[in-house]
């Protein structure tokens, strides 16, 4: 019994269920009791909605047409071979952010800052500014106020590295991943289905159901693409 509970908490998707149930309960309870601020109430609601979106993506894995795309996204985010890509992209963004932070020291209190005050933390604000620059958000009206030449040189370098190099490299990697996964479309669909079944086996308590059995054999019909006669198919099904 203890091991069943331990296995339940070892799965990320079960933690998402806990957040959804707990967050929804707090959200509904505050609707009647009003024991928290409206700001915190809405933040909790947004987190619950985000978890619902993740859970919807989780269940879409059961469908063949969606499983390949979800598998591609998961491989893009968490594949060990892509750690180098994300690390190098972060280094480029962080490097441009450090440059902006240093040049912003030349701005007086009366001057407009290079980056917008989004969070209130200079390190995080410059990272956000660099990330938006890589995505094509060109709010650069204050670049020319001081150090105009240096700022525009760094801006061109940042756009070349992040947009032209890394983003096109990301597209190439995604295309390769899609081709690889599409070649084994049926296998990937079955893999995702089996993973979902494996993550919910604790509900069936197989240790109790099959405690007196030494072997468990699963038998199903042959659904291969090989052309066979009707008689042979019935024999295979049996």
Supply the helix-strand structural class: mainly alpha
Parts with pLDDT < 50 across at least 5 consecutive residues: none
Total strand segments: 0
How far apart lie the N and C ends? 38 Å
Helix content: 55-70%
SSE string, helices as H and strands as E: HHHHHHHHHH
Number of spatially distinct domains = 2
Integer average pLDDT: 77
Give the secondary structure arrangement, pairings included.
Layout: H1 2-9, H2 12-33, H3 38-60, H4 64-78, H5 83-103, H6 122-135, H7 148-183, H8 185-199, H9 206-209, H10 230-237
Which key features would you list for this structure?
single chain, 238 residues, 2 domains, 10 helices, 70% helix, mainly alpha
What does this structure look like?
By secondary structure, the chain is mainly alpha-helical. The protein has 10 helices and no strands. The chain has helices spanning 2-9, 12-33, 38-60, 64-78, 83-103, 122-135, 148-183, 185-199, 206-209, 230-237. The mean pLDDT is 77.
């Amino acid at each position: 019994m203890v091991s069943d509970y331990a296995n339940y908490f070892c799965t990320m998707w079960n933690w998402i269920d806990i957040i959804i149930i707990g967050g929804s309960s707090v959200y509904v309870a505050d609707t009647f009791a009003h024991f928290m601020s409206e700001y915190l109430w809405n933040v909790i609601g947004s987190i619950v909605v985000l978890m619902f979106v993740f859970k919807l993506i989780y269940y879409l894995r059961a469908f063949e047409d969606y499983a390949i795309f979800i598998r591609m996204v998961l491989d893009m985010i968490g594949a060990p071979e892509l750690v180098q890509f994300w690390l190098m992209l972060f280094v480029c963004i962080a490097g441009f952010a450090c440059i902006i932070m240093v040049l912003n020291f030349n701005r007086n209190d009366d001057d407009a800052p290079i980056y917008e005050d989004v969070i209130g933390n200079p390190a995080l604000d410059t990272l956000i500014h660099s990330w938006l620059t890589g995505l094509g958000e060109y709010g650069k009206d204050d670049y020319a106020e001081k150090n105009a030449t240096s700022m525009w040189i760094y801006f061109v370098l940042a756009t070349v590295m992040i947009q032209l190099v890394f983003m096109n490299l990301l597209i190439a990697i995604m295309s390769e991943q899609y081709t690889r996964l599409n070649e084994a479309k049926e296998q990937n669909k079955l893999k995702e289905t089996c993973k979902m079944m494996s993550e919910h086996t604790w509900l069936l308590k197989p240790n109790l159901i099959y405690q007196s059995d030494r072997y468990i054999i699963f038998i199903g019909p042959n659904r291969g693409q090989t052309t066979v006669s009707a008689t042979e198919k019935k024999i295979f099904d049996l």
